[in-house]
Write a structure and sequence with these properties.
mainly beta; four-stranded mixed sheet
């Protein structure tokens, strides 16, 4: 009876009375193949877009019986490397030059797994499908530094940084920012655009909120550093400048952004708005609507004058008092 071969490692099973004089050689080959299956290493250069590991009966030269496979060479297109369609496991080191092409590894005629360029993979196959162990593993504990060159997807569970509450910082960098987001573990502060946040949340750069902003329990200060030219503006449905603070001119405006005539300027900003510029509603009946503080003189040299003959009647200003229109006269100066 002739020798037969195992399906997984291609070991030679010798028949009784066969291979006289070569039995020791064949046994040594089998032992070497077993050693390769446990710790063997082979470097395989990709030769085509549909390449296969060699699998040879009765010799130690076959590639597929090695535990560690290093793939090299330059890809000329999307490439599939395959092994025998039998149960096996491999450590695969992808050292190929991709040239923008994908590389997969599979059992012959079976389903493949896609290799990550430059990465090392722990794979096993049931003979019909190739599985990447780290694609679907359980809990992982890294006692050292965990470096990830590819994407990280967290799906189906919570992400907790610094679960023990130690003094550990958390930093996110971006293309242009050395510190895009920073959590200061020792100071209990968050910085956006800064690695030295001075308060609970410190933002260096622009800030935009598309939803509601609720400030509760503390003061709100605009331009605390008193920078020379920082404006503050509020928009409404139809007004771009419903409220405006001119940082360089130290003026406030309602309805415009160029308060040039006064410290506070109100502009109706609509020629057909059918509404007053200013409404004063005094609920305290014994208090005035407006209080004027100025320097008083008997002539017209100050803002408050006791002169009863300031000049001739020049015109009137329309006002609404309790729903009725009245005219307030104004006089020319002498």
């Amino acid at each position: 009876m002739a020798s037969t071969y195992t399906s997984t490692l291609n070991l030679e099973l010798q028949a009784t009375g066969e291979n006289s004089g070569t039995w020791g050689t064949i046994t040594n080959n089998n032992l070497q193949k077993l050693e390769s299956a446990a710790k063997g290493y082979v470097s395989v250069a990709i030769a085509s877009t549909t390449d296969s590991l060699t699998a040879t009966n009765g010799t130690t030269a076959d590639e597929t019986s090695n535990a560690i496979i290093k793939l090299t060479g330059s890809l000329s297109g999307a490439t599939s490397m395959q092994c025998e369609a039998v149960e096996n496991w491999y450590i695969v080191d992808d050292a190929t030059t991709r040239n923008g092409y994908a590389l997969t590894f599979k059992p012959a005629g079976g389903a493949a797994t896609t290799l990550v360029s430059g990465a090392k993979h722990l794979l096993y196959t049931d003979g019909s499908t190739m599985f990447d162990v780290l694609d679907d593993c359980g809990d992982i504990t890294a006692n050292g530094t965990l470096d990830v060159a590819g994407a990280v997807s967290l799906d189906g569970g919570a992400f907790v940084f610094n679960n023990t509450g130690a003094d550990k910082n958390f930093t996110i960098k971006s293309d242009d920012d050395a510190v895009n987001f920073f959590s200061d573990g020792g100071e209990d502060r968050i910085g956006i655009g800064t690695g030295t946040p001075s308060t609970k949340l410190d933002v260096v750069g622009g800030f935009k909120a598309s939803g509601a902003v609720d400030l509760d329990g503390g003061d709100f200060t605009w331009n605390q550093s008193s920078a020379n030219d920082l404006d503050f503006r509020c928009e409404t449905a139809t007004l771009d400048d419903a409220f405006f603070i001119d940082g360089s001119a130290d003026k406030v405006a309602f309805g415009c952004q160029d308060p040039s005539d006064a410290m506070v300027e109100i502009n109706q900003a609509n020629s057909s708005g059918a509404i007053a510029c200013l409404a004063l509603d005094q609920d305290d009946t014994d208090k005035p609507f407006i209080k004027f503080d100025g320097t008083s003189n008997s002539d017209q040299s100050s803002s408050v004058s006791t002169d009863t003959s300031v000049g001739s009647l020049t015109g009137h200003i329309l006002v609404d008092v309790n729903g009725t229109n009245y005219w307030i006269p104004f006089y020319a100066t002498n």
